[in-house]
């Protein structure tokens, strides 16, 4: 069984996984095998415990969904019951591509949040249609499960890439396989989206400019650097290959490594380690991508012209800016963007936008940074994905070349044609020929035809074999001739290109006159190899253990009785069974163009060619021509003819073979030449070998009839098939074997035989080592230099070198490597300790030592008479605690207390404590004016008050700041800088005022009141603006119009000029209409004169609209007020009404609030039928028209989307079916039609008249006849050795006479008889001879 390494990975809390099982239900599978597959699937679903939804599909010519998305846990019983009710549908074809296409169509209609589909395609017959890989947007992964050998893996590799299809030899292995693939496994490897192209035949290695955008997030930057480091280490870096640059982004973008830097791996890794960008809490993905695109298109940054630009962007959270515009810029610039979402906080829509609408497979989603690192470390899949990225709308072939839509090309094997479709999808068409469905030819000598691999499939050909058999040594040449060896000689069987195969014969031990094969020798084929009759093998003269691989030759043994020598470079395979005196030499069909010489002759040349190149017809001369050496002459047989044909050939044991190979020739030869018991054994053994090649194995040997001797540890088996293990080969399967001939295959594992073979074999549970049988463990043990045995895969550390770790590998090989230092991690040190490395001979070791710079904490304060004690002496961080030491109590000196405290003695459990307790009160002192109050609080919370002189002078209880002056009666005083030594306050100095007896101004007079130190000027009259004096109470006109008058006034002994307006009489003001305003003129008069004046406005519907302003009358009408300048200024209102365009076909107008024209809403799609008729299909509805399904939908932008799905039917000629008498029927419930041929049956025809001589019937005659179709065939005839045709016709099985009255021209009547059919059936007849 060959399986892929894929497993379903499902994390806790993850949603359901959609499992889809697609089962082949064609006629070639049959009802019995289909039911077995269904029952095995029921067993799988019964054992599943995970959250899965199950879908089951059956397909052949058509596709039927039997069960759709049923959840296991909630509907298990109902699901199992429905599965058991699934019935085999049958069908002549295996339309695998149609089944996959239907799954893809259904997947595109699933909601975006639906789980991914895992599809298991269970099939056992080759597809009869074209297969196309599902698009990656469908989120569907297909695992082809191939049962048997009929389907070639290469035909389905495109479906499962990057994994290989799964091949099962037995249908029963399906249960364990599906349970293994569907069981969650943790941890798991990251899963990359499938590549958009076919499996690469060569690695992609084109130059690229790769730019990494790393998210500067807390705690993740180091992991992202590890990811880039792994990429650099696994990539060919250089100016002519791949270049790498790195930018770190968050709120802003920082370029850490440029393409212009030296592009060498060592330099890039050094620059990468120096990146220490501080983390950022916000991510601006749009700005980061835009910066990367600008870097890519600028040659100043080191980007190369014509080299693809690739951006790998790590996305861990949502972006705070838009990414759409940046993604469009990348698409326009031709930059391929690969966004990698890590974790669960990023936005999936943003990831899809960054990847681009045409390249959704570029988006990668991973669960953690561990998966990210694994993706760059494991293999070259990620690099290959970047390398094969092309611009949207093009395809990329396996060599990295871009292909345009519509372009086709062939794969390197020449058997597959690829087509580039629009959108970048690639489809493959296979030209391979599957010979399994072809009938093998019949070969001469009852030899079974062999399957020959060809460039595009395979074909059947008769093998080119030379066979030597029985004690008489009949040699069957490549062209099927029988020759009898005559003496004890060495014969040259084949000479080819300097190589020669020689058969050495010798007298038999028991019968000295009988010929026995002693050995077969291959000379000049890369080594001189001799296969001896004692089962020993010598190579260049020295005995060598088996298996042997030297000089391009491979020598193995099967069953301890059969030698097998394979020379691939010569195209020869030799089998030699000394005990039975048998050998076969088989030539590779592909290498038969090179002619050979020798007794075996040359393939395809029916002539006896002597060693000198001449041709003869004498078999004896021919044999003597190829004698290499003569051992001794052989006496003629003196056969007593006492032996009769042994009953073994005609007994019941060989009855199954008689129908395939007639025993008569062997019986005749036995009766003629078997003069000794050994002859009989060899002849029966030869007949048994021919039967085995025809597929019939007979266990004919008995203890009394030709027993075969075996080594003591082995057991004889007559019909052993399968694989035989020996030391040097392990358990294996025939899947990876090389065909050796006679049904025997060999690979790196055991020798295997698909054809039953007889021989000596080891008992079950043991393997062969030379001529003995041992356990598997005994032949895989390794022995070290000290003589100690170690089982396979055991690891140990040598005593003399503990730094090495040795492992016992295959072929008893010991592999020792330097011990990995897994425990070299530094320890976690205690406080005040630092790590220091110790010197060691193997791995680095670390220890913790004291840190001299460590700051120790303060010791605790002890109470209750306790003393301080160190509890961890010698450690780096001291730990103190308080303990009681009564012997030291008397040594303690009582404390001295300050004035505000008094001593107090307290009895404790340890020493009596004397302490100073508080003994004070708060002060209530008040400071005099000019002093500062200073309050202090002691440690007993008592407040003490003190008074200090301030920087002021104090006069009669009033404080004055230094430098201030003030009047005190007729004196002027000031606060000086000098202090009074007794009080500490500043000194006050005063002096008498000096009076100014100036002359008073005009309009004022001098006045001095009682008690004043000096007099002052007091205003007594007013000074007008014209310079005249006005007395108090005097009034005068203040302006030219007489509208304002002035008056000299006295208020509170102050004289000043007051101004008053002239009072106007009450007036009637007019009421102005809308669009005018009241304007009053006061220029020419003291009192106003008012009138209504027109404004620069428009009036509409009692609303004023200013000049230049616009107003909306309704949603469809807009007006503007404008002023027309002319002799008379005039305001005018101009209006414009919006005209709405009608909606296109299929859309209806829907009113929209605050909108004039509303919006066009999708209502129906228009579908054009093949006859030209147009039909309307409502939105969100579908219509089925034969095999065409029209669906009318509305996308998220409100646009109509008409989807037309056409069901593809098998090719069908309707008219030909009707012309041949067939009837048209449907295939199942599908829209496809098929032709039902009429079966052989009775039918009734009407004859208008019949004529016998001149007489004619007068009435119509109903006559029954046979019509319908029967199946003819061609069968191989064993007697005639040819394929004979057998014609089967619709024939009558019985008739009855029908009397018909006839009228003659002379008026007389007569009768005649016709035969009418009474029964019909298909009967075989001899076919007409071909001319």
From TrEMBL:
Organism of this sequence: Alosa alosa (allis shad)
Gene3D superfamilies in alphabetical order: Laminin, von Willebrand factor, type A domain
Name the record gives this protein: von Willebrand factor
Any Pfam family: VWA
Disulfide pairings: 1240-1290, 1255-1304, 1266-1320, 1270-1322
Residues covered by the CTCK domain: 1240-1328
Residue ranges constituting the VWFC domain according to the UniProt record: 780-851, 951-1018, 1096-1161
InterPro entries given in the database record: Cys_knot_C, ECM_Assembly_Org, Ser_inhib-like_sf, VWF/SSPO/ZAN-like_Cys-rich_dom, VWF_A, VWF_dom, VWF_type-D, vWFA_dom_sf
Ranges for domain VWFD: 464-641
Annotated VWFA domain residues: 18-181, 209-386
